[in-house]
Write a structure and sequence with these properties.
Length: 349
């Protein structure tokens, strides 16, 4: 074995999980933690508009044998923009664990572009010790079938075939596509919400965007075998030229196209009617994502609320802790121009 391949073998593999807001990244990682065949995994979680919802959901993995020290949350914006300040120290912290992790899983925020993060693995300090095992793009199949990431995905895919340099002015679509363009594996999630025809159409749309032969695997609730997700051996940091991005010509990128707000949620009596209200707010204000925790009067447990577009789910996730303030808080994410005052008023009413 030559020096290069033995050095590569000794590096710790890292898997980057990307995917648009609400695609199912946290759900997939939770499943992976519960079914990782004893592998010592460490996690880096990055959220946009964070109130620690994903962290809280994944901390539930304490009972799944994942050490709390092995979860690092990066809440200050997008990791791809804060590599030196946030990402490097997070990696150092995980590598200092005794014993060190066997595999690091990084959940990017739903608005992150994965390529700058892969580039960070080319930094000497990281390159010497880690390699990108693979970039996994999780797609919200139901949303894609409704064309929520492009004005008309089929039309665009056809235009793109005719002209690969087609201009984009839809930031949602650019983020979605950048995630696909960087992927080594695509998980088409939420197949339970799609008809067979929708699934076939979305697969064709995704294939039209993918620049290389990349496998697309369907899933429900992110239930994918760890053997499929981990061990792709892509060494993506050595393959950056093949991962085109809409932002390749930009010295830096920002997320000015999107914004988030944190809203205090009132104590409620009836989850179903509150969820109905949230769905109407999401629809009226073009909200992309709402998630957080709410206090239900008389209930010992807090209510976890999750909305993707106007589709909502809620469940009681854990009892309020002794001495913990029963304060409801929701993060609301949308494209720039969200009417924060109206949303707050409608929510706090
Ligand atoms: N019906 C259905 N719902 C799903 C599936 N996978 C995830 N969900 C739900 O979709 C919502 C978003 O899932 P998450 O796993 O939080 O998505 P995410 O990509 O981590 O979201 P962000 O971190 O906010 O970008 C939650 O309400 C999940 O319960 C699925 O396969 N089918």
């Amino acid at each position: 074995m030559n020096d290069l391949s033995s050095a590569r073998l000794s590096r710790i593999p890292a898997t980057i999980i990307t995917g648009f807001l609400g695609a199912g990244k946290t759900t997939l990682i939770r499943h992976l933690l519960a079914h990782n065949a004893g592998r010592r995994l460490a996690l880096i979680i990055n959220e946009f508009g964070d109130i620690g919802v994903d962290r809280d959901i994944l901390r539930g993995c304490d009972d799944l044998g994942c050490d709390a020290d092995a979860i690092v949350e990066l809440a200050n914006g997008c990791i791809c923009c804060t590599v030196a300040d946030d990402f490097l120290p997070a990696i150092e912290r995980l590598l200092a664990l005794d014993p060190p992790p066997e595999h690091i899983v990084i959940e990017t925020s739903g608005l992150a572009l994965p390529k700058p993060l892969v580039k960070a693995f080319d930094w000497p300090q990281i390159r010497a010790r880690l390699t990108v095992d693979g970039v996994i793009a999780v797609v919200d199949g139901a949303a894609a079938a409704e064309g929520r990431f492009a004005d008309d995905p089929l039309k665009l895919a056809r235009q793109r075939e005719a002209d690969p340099s087609i201009a984009h002015d839809n930031p949602l679509e650019e983020v979605f596509e950048d995630q696909l363009l960087c992927a080594d594996l695509v998980i088409l999630n939420k197949t339970d919400l799609m008809s067979a025809e929708d699934e076939a159409r979305v697969r064709a749309d995704i294939t039209a965007v993918l620049p290389r032969a990349v496998r697309i695997v369907g899933s429900e609730q992110g239930r994918i075998d760890a053997k499929i997700l981990l061990g792709l051996n892509a060494a993506a940091e050595d393959d950056l030229l093949n991962r085109r991005s809409h932002h390749d010509d930009e010295a830096d990128h920002d997320h000015d196209d999107f914004e988030s707000l944190i809203v205090e949620a009132p104590t409620i009596d009836d989850p179903a009617s509150f969820i109905g209200r949230l769905a109407r707010i999401a629809e009226a204000h073009d909200v992309l994502r709402i998630k957080g925790f709410v206090d239900v009067r008389g209930k010992p447990m807090r209510l976890l609320v999750q909305g993707v577009g106007a589709r909502f789910k809620h469940s009681f996730d854990r009892p309020w802790a002794l001495g913990e303030a029963r304060e409801g808080r929701l993060v609301v994410i949308g494209e720039k121009g969200l009417n924060a005052a109206a949303i707050r008023q409608a929510l706090e009413r």
